[in-house]
Amino acid sequence: MMYSEKVMDHFTNPRNVGEIADADAIGQVGNPKCGDIMKMYFKIENDVIVDVKFKTFGCGSAIASSSMATELIKGKTIDEALALSNRAVADALDGLPPAKMHCSVLAEEAIKSAMFDFAQRHKRDFEGLKGYQ
Ligand code: FES
Ligand code: FES
């Protein structure tokens, strides 16, 4: 079996799909190689992620990665979300095939993109955004 049960589960029954109309932060990233796009919407209160939703136009691994990533960061602080690596997302899914690791990178980048949006809106600085532009 190429994909773990967790990948199949999060692909066929993804968590936190959708949009948030009055989002406090929005992140969008695309993979230039495969053309897949991931968008994440956040509600943030006192630097805690109280809600997160995603829309992914992409492969099953990208959908599973976004679903798992949103589960992992819900209720966490911005700093904790920024510390989430694509490797941790893949591990939480019990692994991804090597050729599909870039799909989990999209999830990490979508979170960073959204937190960058939040930082800009509020003129804030976050340690985990160092070197991000
Ligand atoms: Fe997105 Fe394979 S490139 S489905
Ligand atoms: Fe490109 Fe999965 S094949 S994100």
UniProtKB/TrEMBL annotation:
<dbReference type="InterPro" id="IPR017787">
    <property type="entry name" value="NIF_FeS_clus_asmbl_NifU-like"/>
</dbReference>
<dbReference type="Pfam" id="PF01592">
    <property type="entry name" value="NifU_N"/>
</dbReference>
<dbReference type="InterPro" id="IPR002871">
    <property type="entry name" value="NIF_FeS_clus_asmbl_NifU_N"/>
</dbReference>
<protein>
    <submittedName>
        <fullName>Fe-S cluster assembly scaffold protein NifU</fullName>
    </submittedName>
</protein>
<feature type="domain" description="NIF system FeS cluster assembly NifU N-terminal">
    <location>
        <begin position="2"/>
        <end position="123"/>
    </location>
</feature>
